[in-house]
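Budget justification note: compute hours in this period were largely spent on complex prediction jobs such as the one shown. Inputs:
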Amino acid sequence: MTSPDNHAAKHEGRYPPGSAAFPHRGLLGIAGLENHQLLFLLDEAEQWVALNRQSHKRAEHLAGLTIINAFFENSTRTLLSFEIAGKRLGADVVNMHAAQSSVKKGETLIDTAMTLNAMRADAIVIRHASSGAVRLIADKVDCPVLNAGDGRHEHPTQALLDALTLRHALRARGGSGEIAGLTVTICGDILHSRVARSNILALTTLGAEVRVCAPPALMPAEVEAMGVTAFHDFDAALAGADVVMMLRLQAERMQGQFIPSPREYRHLYGLTLERLARARPGCLVMHPGPMNRGVEIDSNVADLVGTSLITAQVEMGVAIRMACLEVLTRRARGVAGWEPDWAPDWAPDRAGASA
Amino acid sequence: MSNAAPLTILGGLLVRPGEAAPCAGGLRAADGQIVALGDISAEVGDVVVQAKGALVAPGLVDLGVFAIDKPACHFGGITRAALMPDQNPPLDHPARVRFAAQSGKPNLWVHPLAAATRGLEGREMAEIALMRDAGAKAVSTGRRWIGDSGAMLRLLRYAAMLGMVVIAHAEDDGLTAGAVATAGEIATRLGLSAAPAEAEALAIARDITLAEMAGARLHFRQVTTAAGLALVRAAKARGLPVTAGVSPAHFTLSDLAAADFRTFCRLSPPLRSEADRRAVIAAIGDGTIDVIASCHDPRGPEDKRLPFADAEPGMAGAETLLALTLTLVRDGVIPMGRAFELLAGNPASLLGVNAGVLAVGAEADIALIEPTRPWVVSSDRMEASAGNTPFDRLPVAGRVTGLFKGGVRVR
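Corresponding output:
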């Protein structure tokens, strides 16, 4: 049923009308999203940032809707963040914690997807250890699917929350909040990181200059084709950077030896206060968590007030996930301008579904 | 051997060995063998087939299928198929080889390839001589490389003594372990575990060296990279008995085809870069590649409808082998006669079977082909036991309109 909605009025003229502002059925990745579609989601999230800072943190937009968080890979913060986001929008949120092994023993991923679909979820949030797994499920279910991380491929809500965090931090310093023109250095295990891939796509789409820094063994081949500059020398990568994003060493994804030892890794790639001083003054520090303190980031950097955005990232995570859930369920809720089948055939996720 | 009436095919265009272009003529077969070619006429009692201008070509000899799939082979004009040892259980025992060798007769001859090592594990040599006497036509390392150079050298020496060709898979598994794609932009964007394309050249360089030491006859089942092909080209120039094959996937598609996580494009070796694809075409044109094979491996949804890295490698290729090879003729890469050397003549001589050419005395395995007849590949409508083709919806030309095994019509 259509509920009175003030979204259209709020961004009057800034975005295409109705669902043309975000014509995708789900959020499978940042790849394929336009600059204005990213900005639309960021703008939508602002109201939820405000709501989350009130004592009464509850909206009813998604009342009566069921959201399933299907996590085939362990997660604490992302799962919690999606659960809180759904609940603050009034939805009934169910968490399915399917350990990878039990799914492998029993039913196939497709059967699990069909089961979830048959329970008539209104949105499904999926995390899976295999690249492309979320896309596979999305092709088999009728409701919007949100990718909460698939293998090394993408983690789109992380990239969106990072952009929102940056925007707020820049505004708090009196700036416009524009990400365009920033120099962002992403350092760490680029090879195994879905956070890196989504952030590279989002930041370059938003107009930032992106540098990636990793030892050769943790740098994916031809990463420059994604529009970034690759560095092996962290000091060089930091020179002139406005933002540095540190990534966790993902030991669980490594087969074979990629680095000699954590302390040697810290020696070359750990973000220390001395290293941070090589970046542009006022350089902001981010980390998607969980952190290995004393390995890729020192505690005195991670806890540096005014510089470290690590807890702000967590806060923005809830708001951005609320925005994604609210926007993606507009079709199902019959919000004016978001009637079903409005999405053009050429929308990337549509074209894929019929291929 | 055959009790069937003699066969006479009239009014066709014969594809004969050593001749680039087909020429008009007929063919007569009796007792399963070709007895006359050229300007012939039917004799009383013959089964007469009017080719009406269609190509009269040797039945295809497919050097490397993973499953015995008669309907798909017959659709594709394949009358003989070499069965890879990667079966469950592997073809590493004479009894299994003997069974496999009989499994397609009479209308599809299966030539089992003996597993080089027990369980295809790359360690202990299998009973190759016993398997040879049970019907194995060559030795194969399966879909994997033998990492232990000592074991590979011993294998090559032993196979050379037995007069058997060793068919090798060329990927250095120190680099490819766990990889499902070729390192490059596509694998990076998709976040797929990838290995550098150079893994192939590394393996080929070692195996050529070992084969030269052993005096062995070595065939690389699939060579798919420019660097690997350069090594094969150089070895041939030095006169070494080294040959190379490829499947249509690697001259038709690049890794871009997997960009949507399409598991039908999960192959072994994986799809390569566009530059490598072009190098494969050039190598077919200049004679570096000797064999085009289907690598037919039909896989159902339980193996393919999975996340890319979890899906099994392989494609259903028997039906598209001929049509995709004919695209090379259409594009002027090779003449028609050469196409059938790649598809039939060369693989037959590699296996040591008296087939694959239209010659008096050869087995009467014959395909009637309309080389320009268009059709569209459709994974939903295939004769193969599964429709996992990476060429879904591709318009192609070239259709088999009649197929004869030992002079007897099978399609």
